[in-house]
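Morning, I've got a small favour to ask if you have a moment. I'm working through a protein record and want to make sense of it properly. The fold is given in discrete form, as structure tokens running alongside the sequence. Can you walk me through what the tokens say about the fold? Thanks so much in advance, here it is:
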Amino acid sequence: MSLAEKLLTGILLFCFPLRVWGWDWQTRVTVVVKEQPVKAVCELLEKEYGIHFSYSRELVNLSRKVTITAHNQRLKRVLEDLFDPDDIRFTRVGDQLVLLPVKRNYRTISGYVEDMVTGERLIGATIYSPSLQQGTTTNQYGYFSLTTVKDTNSLIISYVGYTPFLQSVANRGNKLLTISLEPLANLKEVVVSATEKNRLQDQTQMSKVNLQMSEVQAMPKLLGESDVMRTLQSLPGITGGLDGAGGLHVRGGSPDQNLILMDGTPLFNFSHFFGVFSLLNTDVIKNTDLYKGAFPARFGGRLSSVIDITMKEGDMKAYHGDVSIGLISAKFNLEGPIIKNKTSFMVSGRRSYPDLLMNAVLQSGNILDPNGSLGAYFYDINAKVNHIFSPKDRIFLSFYKGEDKISVRQSMEDTTIVPYDPTKMRLEAGGFVAGWGNTIGALRWNHIYGPRLFSNVTINYSRYSFFTEFNQKYTIPAADQRVDLFGRYSSRMQNVGTKIDFDFRPNPSHSLRFGAAGSLNYFKPSSSVLKDMDSRLKPLDTIDQEMRSRGVEMSVYIEDEWKLSQHLFANLGLHMSGFQVEGRFYPSIQPRLGMRYVLPRNWAIKAAYTHMTQYLHLLTNSGASLPTDIWVPSTQRVAPMFSVQVAAGIAKTTTDHNFEFSLEGYFKSMDNMVEYRDDSLMTSPNLSRWDEKVTVGQGWSYGGELMIQKKKGNTTGWIGYTLAWSTRRFPGINRGEIFPYKYDHRHDLEAVVMQKLSKNWEISASWHYTTGAPITLPVASYLGIGNASPWDPGPETMPVDRYDSRYNFRTADEHRLDLSITYSKQKKRWRKTWNLSIYNVYNQKNALFYYLQEDEVTKKRYLNKITILPILPSITYSVSF
């Protein structure tokens, strides 16, 4: 080798190490990447500048995607921007750049978020740590727990309708905080402040709706009453019962498949006046969460939905209330401190009075005789006491009582059932009374064990009862005989339960909930008596078997809200329960899984798998939820219902929080559904073995839901559309073939607009359209022999119908427009509000039910319908103080 060659080789060998070891912290580098993992940036630096990285995959996660634009910048500055967000420290060891996790001291900050004016705890308030770039929300009792780095100086707390607050937390250790938020001054500001609401893409939970009470109050009112349930019916995937009748059908499910909780206590009937009015006074509701699917593991016992309603706790600082008077109902609410800042109360009452108006109208028109009366009313009472024992202990005692009554009393002087015949029975007087209602009570105790562990213990009682009574007095003039018939039928269900729930927040990546519950269900579905009050003999017919039965339900659950990576989140849960009845035990393991992946531009893809089991059945075949429907437990013959639901969707809240968009698709299979074999409403009081008169089958529902909602500004509202199918199959019904079920509405569209006209005026409108529901009608008929009357047993030819299949026709499509105008004026010490609502503005004839009627001339039958809700204007005046 020549001297020149040796010199060149030496220069090359000398220069190569300069590329490997010749970098330092001041070396200038250029890096331009977009949405690439941190690992890819490290590989780029190694390739271009000879910087070798050394790290353990178990300790250091380089999967986070980053966007970096650095031109001729110092290496150390680029590395700091790259690794600091993931708490990764770097150091040079020889020719290696070693990556290690930062050993940082953490602390847990916990406490409550409350209303500054009333002391009411706020549900779902957001607590955000800028230094950690993570946050949490308050639970159902206003409590939060956030583990953050020790050098965190402040937290940002925000809530819809309140001024955001910057809370200093420096040098506070693990002290329990109580953070008070100031309400915004007026309704206009509250609407604009919706920017503080959590974004849809930040919530792993799908198929969930948080219903704002301001939205419920702004909706058009039926007969002057705001209604939570009617507002829920305006959301995608949810339809109501027949127009004017109760019922809440969620994703093809029946009304009994909805778990309705009021302060953690189940309700078994949730409407007044056959669904015209909501069971609950909206003015005392604090928060409402609806789950249509992807149920968290803490809920169980129903197949279709969970409606979790929290009542107000009462003002801790001052007394205030409101009074409202409408056309057919009036109500009041009062709350305030018993001991200021320690004990509060809330009480409300509501009573309708259509019976007073109807009696006057009927008697003035000679429709009701002077000695007769018509009664139709409902009332309900809510009461709640809230007491703070210590910063870590609080107790709540709540009570609800509500009842409906319908009665008819009529004197039949100078009238007979048939043309006068002294040998036949004559009705002199008669009366009918029906009543139904709920009674519930709950005792709850909140306790904080430490900054990361919160618990709630609940003891509750719920009772639903129904009864009918009739009294008829007859005479037979020829025999000089009197008969005073009295009959009564009643049904009752009771539930006593206890539950303990824990909320554990070990670190920002995990939020654990776990607990256990037990309840005793008592059923008395049937008790009846029929007797002659003028006779000393035994009752004519008494059935007191009542099928008294008891069922014990037990459950445990655990769920974890888990951050798997920067973009992937999961809600993992398991609900295990069992039901003991008639000497048989039904166990159930119900896995729950929810996933969320955040896409570029802040779109989120969500998916969920849910398994639910229901141990109770509702005996009904009506399209409405009626008080005569009977709750019964699973038996040895009829097993519990269970369902599997899968759902997937995409969701986004725009950057300015102005719009929310969600699109979901779902498929739900249901087993052990029950149906009467003869498809007739069972009115027989003998229910000693109801499970022998039903058939057990399967059900399926599937479809898609689209919702676009405007959350911000003077104009707000939403458009919701549902495309859905609901089918059933039962042995022995419809020849065992699949048929569309009565809750099958193919298309459902709802549009809601709320417009703030000025400081004092607001107008809202809602338009609803749904395609017809399945109905069973005969395809042919022939003449048969029947009886003309129970009082005249002579034979008469009557049409006998032939049916080819179940639910073989569809009713007409239904649609309706409702309007509402509200005027509010703030006085010095009180606020007055006038509301004018028009239900069914263009007087659409939507049917309550259909029936076959014969034309008196042609003797041909045709399909007729009964409608009970024409155009209905109402006006309500309320005063708040």
In short: The radius of gyration is 33 Å. The mean pLDDT is 81. The first strand starts at residue 28 and ends at 37. Residues 449 and 632 are 40 Å apart (CA to CA).
